[in-house]
Amino acid sequence: MRVMGVDPGLTRCGLALIETAPGRSVTALDVDVVRTTADQPLERRLRAVHEVADEWMAIHRPDVVAIERVFAQNQVSTAMGTAQAAGVIAMAAAYRDIPVAFHTPSEVKAAITGSGRADKKQMTLMITRILGLQKPPSPADAADALALAVCHSWRAPMQGRIAGLDSQVSRSRAGFEAKVAAGREAAAATHARGRSSSADQDRARAAARDMARTKGVRW
Fold it and tell me: Does the annotation count 210 as an active-site position?
């Protein structure tokens, strides 16, 4: 499976591609950082990010794109730019029918280092070791993109198994509820037939009494 990791941003947007093998073995295939300047109009910066990401997808044909999920930050403008960059990349993937997965920073840190509070230095060190790189990827956006790709490649199988189990549970629950509903309907029908039979008997007795009275018989 080929996973394209994306650390979204307007000033620097990290892109990375890895390939997975059986087990937890991963190999880095490519990494890049898209840069734009603050003096450019927003639409041109977004177009630049979109064009490079789309070119990557056309060349590398990833099976899935893993993007960092954006959370509110102290600087609202930075968070908005990051979200906008993530949006145009997700759109590029959607046009190519490539699935998109979002992972929070804490999920990525926990997957790579074992701690959801690891710092940039720890993340870079661990991703360098995991991928067997000769030197740490630079800048940090490149390391983050690689980490996102590795995180997804390790978490996706487990998430798939969990989704499969959830689906089995849902099917079992639906089957049980259907059986319960069928049992209730059958019980209601039996009760209705019982009431109908009792009513028929009462009408038959009443008719017999009327006939007996007509003939002068006392009950």
Answer: no
Structure tokens belonging to residue 98: 């490539």
202 a catalytic residue: no
Which pLDDT band, with edges at 50, 70 and 90, does 167 fall under? low
Q: Is 35 helix (H, G, I), strand (E, B) or coil?
A: strand
β partners of residue 101? 66
Q: Which residue has the higher pLDDT, 206 or 112?
A: 112
Report yes or no: 84 and 76 within 8 Å, Cβ to Cβ: no
Q: Quickly tell me which residue has 């790189």 as its tokens.
A: 133
Which of the residues 7, 19, 119, 177 is marked catalytic?
7
The reported pLDDT for the residue numbered 213 is 67
Task: In whole angstroms, give the CA distance from residue 102 to residue 100.
Answer: 7
- What gap in Å lies between CA 26 and CA 166, rounded to an integer? 28
Report the distance separating Cα 30 and Cα 133, nearest Å: 12
Q: 141 an active-site residue? A: yes
- Nearest alpha carbon to residue 36 among 141, 137, 127: 141
